[in-house]
Design goal:
The chain is of the alpha/beta class and about 625 residues long. The model has no long low-confidence stretch (mean pLDDT about 95). It has three domains: about 270 residues, Divalent-metal-dependent TIM barrel enzymes (TIM Barrel, Alpha-Beta Barrel); about 140 residues, 2,3-Dihydroxybiphenyl 1,2-Dioxygenase, domain 1; about 190 residues, 2,3-Dihydroxybiphenyl 1,2-Dioxygenase, domain 1. Strand 4, helix 5 and strand 5 form a beta-alpha-beta unit.
Length: about 625
């Protein structure tokens, strides 16, 4: 199978699109007619430009409102077709997409449509062109691939075949397994798109909210499994209409698209026995056992402020690097690394972003296999010179300019702390606060980058996504979605800011890019933890008393329990499965903060209902510090 992407899927003029598509690794391109019409080159020059990029024209599209037209419109459609075929010949394209008619004057009838396609097939054969017929989900008479296939079957012409599109099938909830009965050699082309699960007009949904396979909620894998079972071995192409993509980076979107196709084909290969899918051999999605460490880049002064906050949270300095200016701070199973060394990646990250989380270490079953899968999906490996006493730890470049390192149970990597750090014991006056592990890490990015982050994590690691929720900031909306593994040992929340006036947007702007905005630590008894924190001099984020009045109204809490929450600044939520408690540190720098959480019962969420009250409190804290945030 070859890969392609429609020019409509990415931003830029046609030349920019082709450059990005070629750089991402695609074999071909669908030329969307409007992109050609808006370009100032002849068809012949466009065809040569495509070939100069090492691509082929996989499809020219769309040709609309063809079948079932009454006279004189029917004669006119054939004249239009001749003009398109002349253009395609000059361009060097040999397959055109005919989408089912939506014309209000079109006439229904399977046989009438088949006769039209047969006659068009005769015309196309004279040009050396094939025609592919596609059922639009909102087609007037033909809106189901089963009906489209019946028309193609009755047309019975070598130059007439079927084009399948995952969106058109799945959006109408048509069973994709019905595709298995279609002969693979009569499927001329396959277009792929995912989408979030919205209940809206099909045309509007399709034109504005499609996304890459793996980014939405449709069963694109099931669709593709059915296609593969037919023996189809032609082009797999992405046709994505998305408002975010139209304004995004052509290079980034093209890279996402290629990654999504590889991810999809790998899933199909593993779940549809007996089919041959030509995809690079790669390990399975990687199980993650949790977060081994979080590393901050800082200078010495800002590191002092950070470690002072960590001390109030009950952390103690536990190690000093054998050869670099790097410290290890610990509590429970949490490892926090503070890197103030004047060289290397961490220093470069500090110069670019100020104090920030520059590196996350993940516990995985096989570190080398993790890197191998990530590389197969287009991620770049990360290496820097290994100093005295250091280990070479497998790593990749993550998004937002950070790094992911991988620690497994091998003899060498499992001893990283004993090997690279000299043990120290400082902070004897600090009270352990009972923090046990990292519950989740919250990464903040511009909203139009969220799907890129989502696909990156889901394609490499054995994780799933939660439904997207809206977080209300007084200055705007932040979209939030979590990536989780099955047992909850890895939780990453993705928070997409739509404007710079929100706290999340301010963090991105002042930190010069996306990154980790907060880390949530888990405790088994948040009230006992608060007592220890208070003994350490910790001052929690001040929450409005009005919040607790409303909390009582919503949940009918016992007076003593409510007072315990209020006096300690703890936020509360519950659902049908359990309870959730949240305690926040004041903000650090340009909006970074720590959170302490306790989960009781089967609570799976992140306290989204409390987010607006937390954000309002943080903005008050910003203003109290004399910092300009709305």
């Amino acid at each position: 199978m070859k890969t392609a992407i429609a020019t409509v899927s990415i931003a830029g003029d046609l030349a920019e699109k082709l450059s990005a598509i070629a750089a991402a690794g695609f074999d071909g391109v669908e030329i969307f007619e409007n992109d050609f019409l808006a370009f100032d080159r002849s068809p012949k020059e466009v065809g040569q430009l495509v070939r100069d990029h090492g691509l082929e024209i996989s499809l020219f599209q769309p040709f609309r409102d063809f079948e079932g037209m009454p006279e004189p419109q029917r004669t006119r459609t054939f004249e239009r077709a001749k003009r398109k075929f002349d253009l395609m010949q000059e361009m060097g394209a040999d397959l055109v997409l005919i989408c089912s008619s939506v014309s209000p004057i079109a006439l229904g009838g399977i046989d009438r449509a088949a006769d039209d396609l047969r006659e068009l097939g005769d015309l196309a054969a004279g040009y050396g062109i094939r025609i592919g017929y596609e059922a639009l989900a909102w087609g007037r008479f033909i809106n189901d691939h089963r009906d489209a296939w019946e028309i193609v079957r009755r047309a019975d012409h070598a130059n007439v075949g079927l084009i399948l599109d995952s969106f058109h099938t799945l959006a109408r909830k048509t069973d994709p397994d019905t595709i298995r009965a279609i002969p693979g050699d009569k499927i001329f082309f396959v277009q792929l798109a995912d989408a979030p699960a919205f209940n809206m007009d099909l045309l509007y949904w399709s034109r504005h909210f499609r996304n890459m396979p793996g980014e939405g909620d449709l069963d694109v894998t099931g669709f593709m499994r059915a296609v593969a079972a037919t023996g189809y071995d032609g082009v797999l192409s992405l046709e994505i209409f998305n408002d975010q993509f139209r304004g995004g980076s052509p290079k980034s979107i093209a890279v996402d698209g290629y990654r999504s196709l590889l991810y999809l084909m790998d899933q199909v290969r593993r779940t549809e026995p007996g089919v041959k899918i030509p995809v690079p051999d790669m390990p399975e999605r990687v199980p993650v056992g949790g977060i081994e460490y979080v590393e901050f880049a800082a200078d010495r002064k800002e590191a002092g402020d950070l470690t002072a906050m960590l001390s109030t949270l009950g952390f103690r300095k536990a190690g000093r690097h054998v050869s670099k200016d790097v410290e290890l701070w610990r509590q429970g199973g949490i490892n926090i690394v503070i890197n103030t060394d004047p060289g290397g990646f961490a220093h470069a990250s500090y110069i670019s972003h100020g104090t920030n989380v520059c590196d996350i270490g993940l516990k995985v079953a096989d570190a080398e296999a993790t890197v191998a899968r990530a590389e197969s999906l287009g991620a770049k490996t990360f290496e820097q010179p290994v100093g005295p006493g250091e280990l070479k730890i497998p790593a990749i470049r993550a998004l937002g300019g950070s790094v992911l390192h991988f620690i497994d149970g091998s003899r060498e990597l499992s001893q990283v702390w004993e090997t690279e750090f000299m043990r120290v014991e400082e902070g004897s006056g600090t009270t352990d606060a009972g923090l046990t592990r990292i519950d989740h890490i919250a990464e903040t990015m511009n909203y139009d980058e969220m799907l890129t982050w989502l696909l990156f994590y889901r394609s490499i690691f054995n994780t799933d996504k939660t439904p997207m929720v809206d977080v209300i900031d007084p200055a705007g909306l932040v979209r939030s979605q979590a990536i989780e593994n099955a047992d909850g040992t890895l939780r990453i929340t993705l928070n997409g800011a739509e404007n710079r006036k929100t706290l999340a947007g301010h963090f991105i702007q002042e930190g010069f890019g996306s990154g980790v905005q907060h880390i949530a630590f888990e405790t088994t008894d948040i009230f006992e933890t608060f007592k220890a924190l208070k003994a350490n001099g910790f001052t929690p984020l001040a929450i409005s008393p009005n919040y607790y009045d409303d909390l009582d109204a919503r949940f009918g809490l016992e007076e003593q329990f409510l007072e315990a929450l209020k006096s300690s600044g703890i936020l509360y939520d519950r659902d049908e499965s359990g309870e959730y408690f949240q305690l926040y540190s004041p903000t650090y720098g340009e909006g970074f903060f720590f959170e302490i959480v306790e989960r009781r019962g089967g609570y799976k969420g992140y306290g989204a209902a409390n987010a607006q009250f937390r954000i309002a409190a943080q903005k008050r804290h910003f203003r109290a510090r004399g910092m300009p945030v709305r």
